[in-house]
Specification:
By secondary structure, this protein is of the alpha/beta class. Helices cover 39% and strands 18% of the residues. It has helices at residues 9-27, 51-54, 61-73, 91-100, 141-156; strands spanning 34-39, 42-48, 81-87, 104-109, 134-136. Strand 1 and strand 2 form a beta hairpin. Helix 1 (9-27) packs parallel to helix 5 (141-156). The protein is globular, with a radius of gyration of 14 Å. The N and C termini lie far apart (39 Å).
Amino acid sequence: MSPSNGSSPGDTCWMRHALDLARRAEREGEVPVGAVLVLGDEIAGEGWNRPIATHDPTAHAEILALRSAAAAIGNYRLPGATLYVTLEPCVMCAGAIGHARVARVVFGAYDPKTGVAGGPFSLLALGQSNHKPEVEGGVLEPDCRHLLRDFFRRKRT
């Protein structure tokens, strides 16, 4: 399974919401990554990077969106859900996505260093895994990439 970029208008709309959440993370001094988990046509959970503020290395946008959705629906399994995230998920987040049984992952920017959902190595597509969500990469990729690139440029100067 390799990500494609056949995104729908709905994907674009939800990714714009995830970008708004990423900007919130940036305003809080965090790496600008946002995530929204959609079930049906409604937001079940959302999150933005918060590891600095919470002193929690697991407080990635995806994890917080999953936690929020699971609490809202009263179940740690989220079948039928789509997770929209502005950056390709890391190993930790891919594991949580699999455990939650998320049906679909849509991400914006590819992460060639730590991403494991779209590049040459995808944990979400491993044959040994008992759950393989559909993956769509590159949705609003220029917007997501520029937000991250500009953030790190400002940090370096």
